[in-house]
Queue: 2 jobs
Job 1
Amino acid sequence: MTTPTRAFQPIGEGGSACGSQWRRGLVWREAAARDGGRGREELAGSARYFSAGRSRKRKSPFGSQAELQEAALKLLDHHQNLGDLLLEVGDSAKPGVKDGAQHQGVSPESFIVSVLQEQASKLGVPTATLAAKNAVAKVEWICQDSASPSRAPLLSSEQRKRLSCLLQTVKDLLANNMFCRSLFCQEMWKMKEPPVLEAVWHLHSGDIVGLAELLERSPAGPAAVEWLCSSLCDLCEQVGDIPCGDTELARRILSDFAIVFLQHGFEQASELGRKVESKKVACICSAVLQRMLAWVLDAVGKEKQEDVSMVQAVRFWLNVFNVSLYGSVAHPDSLRQFFRHTLTEVLTYNPVLKVSDAIQMQKEWSFTRTSPLLTALYRKLLVAFSVKESICQLQQVLETHEVNWQHILSCVSTLVVCQAEAEQLFKDLLSHLLLKAFGNYDMENMITALLIARQAALEGPAVFMPYSEWFKSSFGNAGGHHGSCKKSLVFLFEFLSELVPFEAAPYLKVHIMYPPFVPTKHRSLLLEYITLAKTRLADLKVAIEDMGLYEDLSATDEAVQPQAQALRDVEKALQIFENTRKIPTSVIEASIFRRPYYTSWFLPALLRPRVLPKTPDGCMAFIESLKRADKIPSNLYSTYLQACHAMKEKVLQGDSKEEPSHSKEPFEQLKAELAELRTLVVDQAQWEDVAAQAAVVSDRLRRALGDSSQENEAAPLDSPVPVAVPAPRLAPCHQRVVDLLLTSFCQTLLAASSFNPPDRQGPCLSLVVKMMCGHRNLLPALLGRLCQLLYHQGPSLGAAHILGLAAFVIHLSECRALIPGVEANFGVSQPVPGKALSVSEFWSSLLVCRTEESFAFCLRFCTAAAAYLMCKFSSCSREDFCALTPPGLIKKLQFLVPRLSLEARGVLCEEATTALSWSSLSSLNYRRASLCLWRQAGFQELLKEETFQLSFREWLLMELEVCPDKDILSASERQDFHYWAIYQRYLPAPSAAGGCDGDLEKACGVIINALLDSSQRLDQGGCGQSKMSVSPEILCRLQELVLELRYRPKLLPGCSAAQRHFLLEILQGRLRGSQQGSALGEQLWRQQELLGHRRILVGLPASTLISTCWKGNRTVLDCDSFFCFVNSELKNVSSRGYALSYDITAHFFRGLLNASLECEDAAEGVNEALATCQTKCPVVLLSAALWWPRLEPVLCSQWERLFGAPLAEELDRLRGWHGSSTRFLCSGAVFPVSEPPWLSAAFLHGAILQQSPRGRGREALQRLGTDTEQLLVALLFFSLLDLISARIAPKEGVDFQTSLEWSLEILQCLEKRSTSWPLLFHSAERDPGEGRVLRSAASHRHTRLLPLAFYSLIPCFQRELLQREPTFLSVALQMYIQLLQLFVEGEVLPQSDQHPTEHDPLQLISAARQFLLEAIPQCPAQSFGNMQPLLSTCEELDPELRATLLQFSQPAVAMELEEELELF
């Protein structure tokens, strides 16, 4: 509406006429009441008529301008309404409204001012007062809404338009000092109905009357509080039902008023005024905030019953606690005071719960179970403080107020979940509380500490240590607070005892299984408490005896039923058994010490009937192992087999029913929450919500895994996680969950990377992986799945999988503190279980480079992982970055990049011009990407750190894993790479950098150790290469280095010392340093190791076995080192017992001839060496005798080639002995016996073995001369060792029955000659003659098994032998005792493969025993001399035999006793 000013234009200068005319009828309310709307319409019509904005003139009904003016004045006088005039004037003042008055120079403002002045003068009141009263009346009229029975907090669009007009007029009046604010505020409070909240906001935001000023004039503070609170609640509740534009308006209203509440309710001391009104405003603002907080907390308590709209309303009010809302408009101290006060009010609100209630209910107050409204409130409030300040505030409230335990403990959960630093600060707080508790014997501090520890532990080990660990660390050792004196102990147990009636079963189990440390003299205190706790457990119907073998004592949910726990125990025990092939110790202990649980729960869970597989699986193997160990009763085992058979028949008959499928709901919930987590991670504005969402995901994950709270594997949290690398075993449900987690991680990473590089993605992914690692029972499946993906399926993974998994393992390494060691079992080829690996070492070990495909995969994976690492943690300090970096990753790249890129083998001249971009990895060629990474200055700086340097040995072990025929490099490329690595990189490099300091001996030692370690390591699965083979290419490099060593300076004449035989020192040093645990493990390892030694020695130049030294003025051959190595070690891997294998024998003799070139007289040097060999190492000559037919042509040819002279005398003697033996057997010539007779016998034995029919041998025995007794004894010894060899190495071509028959024939021949032979079976120390030489040549195993050979000769033991040989009984008893000891010690007594029942060890022992029992009565008295030591041994092994000995040896024993008495 335009303002009717045009008619007053002619009188404009004076203005009094206008004023006098207006004074005629000024009662604006009466005019409006009398004429109602008609007056307004006429006024509007006249105004439109007087409007100046017309383009054409109308014909006037008045005769003159004076008549027109008179008519207008009459009209206004009769229909004047000042309130409407205020609206119309304001409306005309809007921009874009053009009227005649403005054209004529008269403004609406001057018009309304003049009108107000006239009316005020007439009424006798101030103009400003009149304006204020009329404005209030109009506000009241605008706020009235006849369409709505209750007052709404927001105006309608029409009301908003009217109010805008009014406020514009009021602003004009204010500009002219024609409006009284204070009176306006007073009049506002006199309105019949309180104003609409939006109207007040418009007054506030339009700078007409601020909310504080309005509140200051309120006659009653409580009424103002009531009005504000009800209006604010209505506003919040209406938010969900209004358009978006109004929602934004409501947000602005709330924000502006919240600022007022904060500014006046929490003024600083310097800002506080002296006026009472200011204090009133502060009280009202504080009261409003207090009432609204109570409204929120009441809604929190009823959240489960409230509808969605109420929750939405409370969430809208929580925007008041956004720190960003206040910006710079509020003093920082005021803001902190407001938030601190609010937090205190929350923590102390309605403190009706007792401590006993908190103990019983706190598991319901974990982060995921707490009301989302309350956690949202906590998270908003805690933003204003550091974590330390938050915990200090929490501590202060606990010390000074009566608290709401639910709010306190849910706040603790929120802090530990959302703040990574909270864990250590809470640990410090708990220590402080315990210190105060024991210092003052204060129960309040004790219960506070206990509740906080339990609450934090509820959130899982990813954010806080389990309660069991905290209880152990606090009270489980003598250094705890309770250990200072008896009074402290009494205090602790009184406290724990008072808790017992309210305790849940899991916590009682913790206290019983991990009791506080108590000195022995105060043990009764502990026993009393345990009795009380067990009584409480009995009341809860939970028996400590029914506790699972692998039950997690940190669990806080209700106790798992024994049936369910037993099933978990069986699954865990099976997992351990399949990895170790041994019955778990916990199962064995339970079968002895926890018999009720074992028999009542564990065995029934294990022996659940099922259809048994055709090929026994791990479960069947475990059951059979328990059965063999007598851990399963026979009747129970039979019942199990019958039930399995019945179930099989039922299935065959088609009666089986499908098992009900498990609910997919937990899995789908987990999937949905992971999707929600992904949206938060991608949006940087929502990162603050990631920690809370991760806690929700953790809760859904726990449900999807099907466990209670923490069904991790057992007991201690540091127990290693077993992973069977060749065939990881995953339960289908666990694999499904793990695949979902890994897929979600990869998708989240790629989605986040599409917006930001890793260094700008925040800590979100770290939180997610940390959450996963907190689920201990997930780790076996997670690591097993990683093993499947990286070790078995790596080359088939796509680029997205590689990028995602590469980042995932980096975050796994970041969370290494949460992951225990990994027991990686690499299969049967692993000789002994290795030490537990860290998680970084574990996944690095899965990246094996053997084939072309695996090389490509490893390069891509390692490049992606290193690029992510360097980008993600680029802002870390050098020390922190090095701690985060997995050494295995960097070392793997040092192996891969130079091997596959020639450019990486040179010296870097300049830094890379462009850094490797994480986002480009998916499209970039991986060789180029790895080279780009290699050239970066940051990566090169990393390589200078000693921790990350790839040593020569590590490089060799990686290279030895490569399958040459499937290598990514050709043979020539591989040779070039080897030459570069050895001669350019490692040989000249300092030892600090993993090199050899230019020392050839050191390089040779590293290569030898690496070759042997590699042969002891994993099977080269699928490469067609035996696990015990030696890499020919690396061996060639070793040969080259050894040959180079021959060109070092030689010793000067006159120096008696021999050159150090460093190769044999290296080999012997490895044997001395072995620690393989069990005796059998040590034996097997040693045998395997020596086979490797032999292969390496044979692969090196033959002359390396022999060194030279000066003796006087001539050079002599020194074989002592080799002889010592043969006598102590090498002979023990010979399957023949008395001879080395052909390869090492031939190698020694060829080396002997080659080394003799350095002597002045080669023949003399060889003769001296072989003469020494007879006394120092007879096994070498015995080996020559066995292999001479193959050895002779080699040596004769070599001698002819080297010297062209007659064969050396000692070699010629060996040739002569072989010829004599052959002629003796073939032509019937006389066999010339020469010294030493054992060597002649060895050649004769070798010749006899080569003769197919043994008839010639029998005939030859009869032709031997009368002076050949020693030769026959030696023949018997060799044949007996062959007898043993036939058992332990049947593939060597020696037949047991043939050897037995031949041994019996030799023994018969000796018996006919009445030759003494039992001395062969005496120890070498007791026989200084030929027997000692023969025994010293035999391997240790053959010597231990001599009792087996001895009692195989029983058919030839005649009565005459007993009478003739007084020592025979003593030897027979010794052999019998040794045979029993072998059996008792678990020695595997060899049997025939073809006839297992024939010559059975037990039958042999029985036969030996029977022989002794029959022979003892027939032995002469002198046979029982010196029996006392044997009697004591027999008493332990065979008491009956001892009794027999005592019965028939009484005179001899008495004689021994008399001799002993005479000594005194």
Job 2
Amino acid sequence: MADRSAPSCHLRLEWVYGYRGHQCRNNLYYTAAKEIVYFVAGVGVVYSPREHRQKFYLGHQDDIISLALHPERVLVATGQVGKEPYICVWDSYTVQTVSVLKDVHTHGIACLAFDLDGQRLVSVGLDSKNTVCVWDWRKGKLLSMAPGHTDRIFDISWDLYQPNKLVSCGVKHIKFWSLCGNSLTPKRGVFGKTGDLQTILCLACARDEVTYSGALNGDIYVWKGINLVRTIQGAHAAGIFSMNACEEGFATGGRDGCVRLWDLNFKPITVIDLRETDQGYKGLSVRSVCWRGDHILVGTQDSEIFEIVVHERNKPFLIMQGHCEGELWALAVHPTKPLAMTGSDDRSVRIWSLIDHALIARCNMEEPIRCAAVSTDGIHLALGMKDGSFTVLRVRDMTEVVHIKDRKEAIHELKYSPDGNFLAVGSNDSSVDIYGVVQRYKKVGECIGSLSFITHMDWSSDSKYLQTNDGNGKRLFYRMPGGKEVTNKEELKGIQWASWTCVSGLEVNGIWPKYSDINDINSVDANFIGQVMVTADDYGIVKLFRYPCLRKGAKFKKYLGHSAHVTNVRWSHDHQWVVSIGGADHSVFQWKFVPDRKLKDTLHIAPQESLVDSNSDESDSDQSDVPELDSEIEQETQITYRRQVYKEDLPQLKEQCKEKRKSAASKRRERAPGNSIRLHFVHGYRGYDCRSNLFYTQTGEIVYHVAAVGVVYNRQQNTQRFYLGHDDDILCLAIHPLKDYVATGQVGRDSSIHIWDTETIKPLSVLKGYHQYGVCAVDFSADGKRLASVGIDDNHTIVLWDWKKGEKLSAVRGSKDKIFVVKINPYMPDKLITVGIKHMKFWRRAGGGLIGRKGCIGALGRTDTMMCAVYGWTEEMAFSGTSTGDVCIWRDVFLIKTVKAHDGPVFSMHALEKGFVTGGKDGVVALWDDTFERCLKTYAIKRAALAPGSKGLLLEDNPSIRAISLGHGHILVGTKNGEILEVDKSGPITLLVQGHMEGEVWGLATHPHLPICATVSDDKTLRIWDLSPSHCMLAVRKLKKGGRCCCFSPDGKALAVGLNDGSFLIVNADTLEDLVSFQHRKDVISEIRFSPGAGKYLAVASCDNFVDIYNVMSSKRVGICKGASSYITHMDWDIRGKLLQVNTGAKEQLFFEAPRGKKQTIPSLEVEKIGWASWTSVLGSCCEGIWPIIGEVTDVTASCLTSDSKVLATGDDFGFVKLFRYPAKGKFGKFKRYVAHSTHVTNVRWTYDDSLLVTVGGADTSLMLWTYELEGHRDSRQCDSEESDLDSEEDGGYDSDVTRENEINYTIKALSTNIRPMFGIKPHLQQKEPTLDERQGVVRGSRPPVSRALPQPEKLQTNNVGKKKRPIEDLILELVFGYRGKDCRNNVHYLNDGADVIYHTASVGILYNVATGSQSFYQEHNDDILCLTVNQHPKFTNIVATGQETQQICQLQLLLSTCGMQ
């Protein structure tokens, strides 16, 4: 089998040629180390001019378009484009990420700026609102956000002389922002008559509220406050793109190619016209300037960077060049020298030295260039053009040899033959022309077999054959030089190819992902000697594969940097380097090839960190070369936790049933019952798909979870206490280092994590809003302040929380495959590890993001599936357990060694003071020393080792171990079979808790006169449980099939069990041995019932719509009940044993006579009169009220009536257990509702004396016991019931005032932010059509029909054209009459010991001085104020908060010394 593994050699980015000048500005700076920082494509570059060396920041996965330098000039912030763009703050010295800011912007990040002390960062998005965000970037926390402007914003800056002030500018606007609390409020700059309203491109802030800005016409506008005070006209001849402030003054750069220096008062110092210098050219446009001391950096539109020394300003030094705007496709390497040639749509061809990292020649052509080739002797350079022509130049002096145009469409590929005699030219019109080099490029042949454009070509080593690829992915062969197509396979067999650049063909099958478009991969080049090849694709990725690469979906190493399409890639002549070029980013990347033997020396170099999955070294191919997954893990990864309906959807669903609610609310409904139930004991432990979810608490109790319940179990008293805050399956549990708090995560649409106290069982914090579908792993940090969690969404998102504040600190996408465990480093709370399917990742926090590095396996093998992990005795050491039974030992991110620990997966691991304990699928607990050198002791979990005090029976020897914890001299073990065991260090094992295993539990029966019950489940076991205080499993029996129902005989001696294959058994209720068994049906037996009294008959209902009646004594079938149109769901006998009531899946209520099974029709009034031996039916008029409003969505699955016929208990598909009064007549009865099960409550039964209600929970596998508490037995505990689905008005109606206020609708007629429609023609430009009124001489106040404005006074209507306008004077608010009392309360307060009164009306906050009767006003609101409160804390005197309609809450502060409002 061909080797599909990734190659062991790798590439390292060595140099990037180019600079992003187009569509970007202000992106070039000196760092504190006098290095130059800028960006190109998706790479941040730090260039040292002294050493002529580049360092790269590779944390982005798309084009970078903005950059800001921290005031200390070491840290750099960069923003990228993309659907979910993010900002990286990174260190220009180490090029490592410091912080990631994400989850707010969309489309891209247009500008960035740090404030004066570098604590805050402002960013502007490219979304439709050009959102402005202010970040506390170290924490990764968003402080404030506001819509920026309706049009593009080009620049933003903090005012360095005033705290909390910013200025932004862009298309036809400038805005002055103030940041107050978390609200950003803008004021638009007033252009007035001083200057034209125009687009402002850049700005800089100065002292005394002065702002300088560069305009599109080349003027500089000077602002004082928000007003334009003067303009400096003609500062530049065209738009000013960049303005840079420094100690000496300001530097500006414009489209006219000039750089101007100004002093601190913006008086001109000097002009540098770059067009006039030696390196200059016509059309040079400056996009970025940076002035530092006597050096000036200039970045141009055409990707050059100049450095100017001020005293030799006419001799700028060119330090970087790249291709200009336009796609870059042409790439060729010199056959004998370290040179690369590129040609682009900018019409230039350039030659780069790979050793000196410099441009050594350039030549401009007439046409855009699409491909290039160098002749074998290195003398000629052929260029294919977009217009169908090709040109040959001499490499030596770039002079033209020949220019030929034989085609009309673009030339895509050219290749010289290895003997140097021919040039093949492939074009867009599907043909390849062959030219004779020696005959001055005369055409000597033509290949015309293709049906699509030619994409790639290769010559054979003997120059006799040519292979081509075309746009359809076809590979064709031609004989040279004539061009005849070769189809004979024998002839093709022995051909040796001189190069391999084709993307189709057997040798390169493996480069294609399994499902991909044939045009994704743009270029390939094989290195025959190193047996590797590189590819370039449309996703910006350069990949390294083995060569040949025969099987689809091979593994590779991948390298990011280019942003979008990588158009071409080539090995240098000596295979030392790979050169790749980017289409849209028109950059040239030079990668150093590091072969295997060198890798060993570089192992100490850690891999480049990644923020994105795609920096991973592994490929996205399938798992076919991974060892088979263990069956148990396979099963677990198949489990889906998605629900059709979540409990969170309830309010919405009820809302949809509004009509029903109204009709129900108007009817008088039965009250909820007075009696209640309380959860008393739960049998079960969730082990089958969870791990490490079992711990000792501080006080020696045991905490674990099952269904939606957190359980604290006291093993001495055999009692349990419950945390009932969750409403769906809990999937994970972690304990605080002090062992007093626990965190549990649940399933849910917006799933929550609860942190609760194991002593008081009270919640301390609930975290939600970040995980979809569920939380599968949680872990506390060693100091207990942080919590890490992993979701079960498609990306398995990892979130780090400050749980006390409920604040998300950082988040990142974890992995496409399932993650099983997250662990926070106990020594460094900013570091964590996650393990999962083929996944071992080491993360560190960076601001709002986490940066991950894959575990480095080196030569020790491949990434296995990891099931558990712990940190060791130092911060570097970590240990993980694999699915194959090994323990991997890691130092930092490197795998040091593996130790065989178990047969089969290692599911659980626990670190001790001195050593470790592990548990595996093999049912063995192993104790290790602190280096995993020696196994000190093993304990096998076997029945023989069970101690006499055990609460139940071990189902099988060596059960799979899922959780281990140590404490109190014991080892606590949780198994996949739902058992919790305590292992004494000396060997005996005590069973403490057990429940059913994976599979749904449906069958439940309570004994007719003893406190025991039986359950049967899809896990193929039948179990008998003791319901008395000893709470244990008395007996268990394995069945050949799973079962769905069971029933005790009336004397309690026999137990009937219906199985899923249509058979049923009757067994001895004590020993569970068979008495008799039958099989008449093929489908599931859904319900089974003995007739009352002597138990003469047994009714057996099945899912194939029949009920069979058997005579128990003679063991014969005596009747069949036919006539149901769907499967049977419930069945009850009457007291005489003569009548059967049956419910079906089609919601039919049917009656049959026993024992023959004749169908009867009984009117509903009669049904109520019949005495029933039991009532478990869910249909009929007696229980109409148990169906919820949203009955279409959820089914009531079970019911059971108390023996006094007063209370009906039900279980439904939402996981609710409810109590109703019986009979529950009329729709939507009131009830008490209890949550503990997660989704379906499949069965409910009262015990013989009604003292307990027993419920089973389908897939949550739990058996719950509830004590029945009569009315009056209410202690003060919080009642966990809810009265009803409906809040009906019959509990005493509202007072009329309250009703009216309740119905006030505050959605506003028109928001004051945009009262006017924002389109149409401005009034003074409209051509006036006299109205009828005007013709008749009537002047009206022209008012829109709905307006918040007063009618305008009539004299404003006269035409004022000839009169001189009087300046408008300001109005000052003097007095306000009124107070808002109609719908507000508690909104009048005394201040200053009663000297002042504060209240509100309309949108004004009013401070009324009692002595003088004067008012002062707070007028920052723009709509009705609805509430007001005063801060009572002595530290915050005179602070008032007011809230308005619409979206904002304002805080006001009153400075009463001046009695002015602030």
